[in-house]
Amino acid sequence: MSTWTSVAEARKESAIGPDVEIRGWVRTRRDSKGGFSFIEVNDGSCFGSLQIVAPGELSNYESEIKRLGAGCSIVAIGRLAASPAKGQATEMQADEIRVLGWADGETYPLQKKRHSFEKLREWAHLRPRTNTFGAVMRVRDSISRSTHDFFHDEGFFYLNTPIITASDCEGAGEMFRVTTLDLDRLAASGKPVNHELDFFDRPAYLTVSGQLNAETYATALGRVYTFGPTFRAENSNTSRHLAEFWMVEPEAAFFDLSDNMALAERYLKRLLRDCLDRCDEDMQFFNQRIQPGILDRLTAVAEAPFRHMTYTDAIEVLEKADAKFEYPVSWGVDLQAEHERYLTEQYVDGPVILTDYPSTIKPFYMRLSDDEKTVAAMDVLVPGVGEIIGGSQREERLDVLTRRMDQAGLNQDDYWWYIDLRRYGTVPHAGFGLGLERVVQYVSGMANIRDVIPFPRTPGNAEF
Amino acid sequence: MSTWTSVAEARKESAIGPDVEIRGWVRTRRDSKGGFSFIEVNDGSCFGSLQIVAPGELSNYESEIKRLGAGCSIVAIGRLAASPAKGQATEMQADEIRVLGWADGETYPLQKKRHSFEKLREWAHLRPRTNTFGAVMRVRDSISRSTHDFFHDEGFFYLNTPIITASDCEGAGEMFRVTTLDLDRLAASGKPVNHELDFFDRPAYLTVSGQLNAETYATALGRVYTFGPTFRAENSNTSRHLAEFWMVEPEAAFFDLSDNMALAERYLKRLLRDCLDRCDEDMQFFNQRIQPGILDRLTAVAEAPFRHMTYTDAIEVLEKADAKFEYPVSWGVDLQAEHERYLTEQYVDGPVILTDYPSTIKPFYMRLSDDEKTVAAMDVLVPGVGEIIGGSQREERLDVLTRRMDQAGLNQDDYWWYIDLRRYGTVPHAGFGLGLERVVQYVSGMANIRDVIPFPRTPGNAEF
């Protein structure tokens, strides 16, 4: 539908022919002794660039083409031909090259020399023009796309749960407050806050999960999933935490824990297979430059059944492990990153689904098992990243739910609508949450979570 | 992959056979004189219900089945057969019916009698169980799904722009503040706010648009689109405004205004066609109960080319119009809802794309035309809803952009990264924003925007 051709298309033999027009940005220019130049042009549509041969006969060859450098934008029109060079199917013999925008080689930050990822974070507006971040963002797109495709294929409806919420019940300390009160005037007043003057007539926060809302729709539409931003106001300056990140949360009526585990496994495998199929060049790049061997590992994971293990069995393994842990292990403790890494990297050497955690370390909404000690929880752990999915079958029994809420010190009035779901036509149901950025890290091998989201939000960081 | 069958599947003749299991919620029960009952069961997978014939011989017929009412959840197993009744292809002869959850007919809010949409907003957790809201949410899902499919088909990558932003430049008065400062302590202090103690070391807000960020990615990946929540802290208690709503914002390098208009038209037509194809029963319902004639109107819109009109021509039409407007019209004024309605409902009787607005009433980033009086803006207006899309070609010329910023009184330092895009390899580019809820209204005919989003956020309203 465009009058021009994308670089992704132009790199295929099917595009060979005259009068092809491409538009993009120069990566490199190399002048040949024969009086012509090779220009590598990329337009973001794929990892690779198209090689353009610019003959010296072009009217602007001396005045413009020999000044082209990294970052300049051009339109090139010419004959697309099979390329004699290795590693590319086609190249363009240019009849015309028009310069749209210059990039001063003295000041343009993305010169040929490699910059550290830390440095590139300061140029978050330019870093998607680099090989690494272009690849990361295409893979991120592929994972998002597969998410929608997968859940629709499985009969789920996409649901938007609220971002602003007045429920501060679940971990208020880590929530961002949302307000229209004038903080400067408020501070100067010296008087108590009148929350009724705030936009929502009461304190409001940014959501930490859409799950409870999603349950209301699962018990109406059957199967739903959310895919939206979530927030944690945790003051963690680590390579694993973001204040703003994207979560996928499916919730399905009539699912029990084993349906839920099977869903999570099918979902993860679909994401991996689609990335391997669709982002071949990007994945090759990660394999060569970011995490050698990642292609083989992901391919293996996409094919083999996931290992299942109860929390109780995992504790036993960890107690017997020939490893020194900073945090001691015994039944009832919450697993730390070091334990998860041991299980998934040393013991299983692949993904593992841990189930049946002690009720004391899990939230009130997880279904209490018959042993009255564990709940129908599941966490999916993967090598290198740790927990990638957390989920559970939900407590559908009214009496058990309200008892668990009382034990947790929660006020039932705050949850009247959530409790209603158990009062009217309650059904077994289950769901999970997947952190998108964790998955992008897992697939790309990128070490820092700030490098897999376009504009990371962390303590002290809201630039761009 | 489930061991049971969805109602959507079970209503097709292809599912006919023995030992079919369905799981869902009772809509109605009708007892026959012959000593058996008809039970309508819905599971949200589609608009229609499956009729289940429960013979009196079932062991729990008297004790349970004759007590079933709206909202109860059941599992039914039996032979699926062709139905002799009109309007349904199949019905189930039940061998077994298990009750999962009761819904007390005395207290369950969704009894047979119809409730007003206002009343149902108080039961936002239960309203998706009704015909209307089930249909609205399936159509909303269809539009979201088509959005991802359409943009991927057109070579766009999905992009997540930040929700929390420190740029308060564009209309700070209407933005929500995001903070981790303790408001109560702040108010009691009587001292000036120390913003460095806040989470991001400076004031932060909820985004009103991802456009400026999307431009950075369009000039790297070529074509991107966002689809995420956006916020307005406007104190508008109308049927057209939400404080939290979802926006789709494509942004494409090398697109000019006409590429942009063509993209918007293809996109809207795709959304309509997919809804008409995929949500047939839901659309039939809207046509019968919500807005008679909507099916024909949408079908016509999906087929005919959109009308284009410059702002200047539109003003001329309005000036000559045989209609009384509350707000007088002359070249240079911003169009009001009444003017938009006249143009799209009276004059064109269909969608219209208005272009080339006066630069004085449009933001600095829209591309200044050669006449120096207008900008390359476009708004898509549709009958009944008004503006559904707003977009423009962006100003790609460094000198013009900075001049326009100065005129608008904006501080260039706040936009250093946005200006960089014009400094390094600038290219013509364009994009637009589409309000998801407005489209759902347009497609469903629902009058109030609060009824097309699962949990509406409006002044004084953040329940659920």
Structural description of this entry:
Two copies of one chain form a homodimer. Chain A has 464 residues and is an alpha+beta fold. Chain A has two domains: 7-101, OB fold (Dihydrolipoamide Acetyltransferase, E2P), CATH 2.40.50.140; 128-451, Bira Bifunctional Protein, Domain 2 (BirA Bifunctional Protein, domain 2), CATH 3.30.930.10. In chain A, 30% of the residues lie in helices and 25% in strands. Chain A has 13 helices and 16 strands. Chain A has helices at 7-10, 117-121, 131-153, 183-189, 211-221, 257-278, 280-290, 294-303, 311-320, 337-347, 398-407, 416-423, 436-444; strands at 17-31, 36-42, 50-55, 73-82, 90-101, 157-158, 164-165, 177-179, 204-206, 223-231, 244-253, 307-310, 352-358, 374-382, 386-393, 429-435. In chain A, the strands form three sheets. In chain A, strands 6-10-11-16-15-14-13-12 form an eight-stranded mixed sheet, with helices on both faces. In chain A, a hairpin with a 3-residue loop joins strand 14 and strand 15 (386-393). In chain A, helix 6 packs across helix 8 (294-303). Chain A starts with 6 loop residues before the first helix and ends in a 20-residue tail after the last helix. The interface between A and B is large, with 115 and 115 residues. Strand 8 (177-179) of chain A pairs antiparallel with strand 8 of chain B, so a sheet runs across the interface.
